[in-house]
Amino acid sequence: MKLSACNQLKGRITNILKGATTSHVTIDVNGTVITSAITNEAVADLGLEVGKEAYAVIKASSVMVGVD
Q1: Which ranges of 1-68 would DSSP assign to H, the alpha helix?
Q2: Which of 4, 19, 28, 41 is most exposed by smallest CB count within 10 Å?
Q3: What is the pLDDT of residue 15?
Q4: Which CATH class is domain 7-52?
Q5: β-bridge mates for residue 41, sequence order
Q6: Average pLDDT of span 50-61
Q7: Where is the Mop domain (predicted)?
Q8: Contact 57, 41 (CB under 8 A)
Q9: Residue 62's pLDDT is what?
Q10: What pLDDT does 3 receive?
Q11: How far apart are CA 51 and CA 42, in angstroms?
Q12: Which residue has the higher pLDDT, 30 or 58?
């Protein structure tokens, strides 16, 4: 798989929480947890399951920072 996004983080799926149309997929990347909201259809098409290795691919046009 080749993508233009530079931030490709390999990890293991630890949880999939399915909603009516969207699933929240949690990936553990060396102790850092990343959660992505994707369609239920995408979960099925990719064959995602808890325990399976997957990539968190991050493509962001901006990063916001806040303080108290």
Answers
A1: 40-46
A2: 4
A3: 98
A4: mainly beta
A5: none
A6: 90
A7: 2-67
A8: no
A9: 73
A10: 81
A11: 17
A12: 30
- Greatest Cα pair distance, the chain, in angstroms, is 41
Distances in whole angstroms, Cα of residue 2 to Cα of each of 6, 7, 53, 55: 10, 12, 17, 12
Strand partners, 29: 32
What does the pLDDT look like over 1-55, one tens digit per residue?
788 888 899 999 999 999 999 999 999 999 999 999 999 999 999 999 999 999 9
Q: Which two tokens stand for residue 44?
A: 């099925």
Task: Give buried/exposed letters for 28-61 (b at 16+ CB in 10 A, else e).
Answer: eeeeeeeeeeeeeeebeeeebeeeeebebeeeee
- Our measurement of the distance from residue 22's CA atom to the centroid of its chain's CA atoms, rounded to an integer in Å, reads 13
Q: Token pair of 39, please? A: 């369609």
In 3D, which of 63, 50, 21 has the Cα closest to residue 38? 21
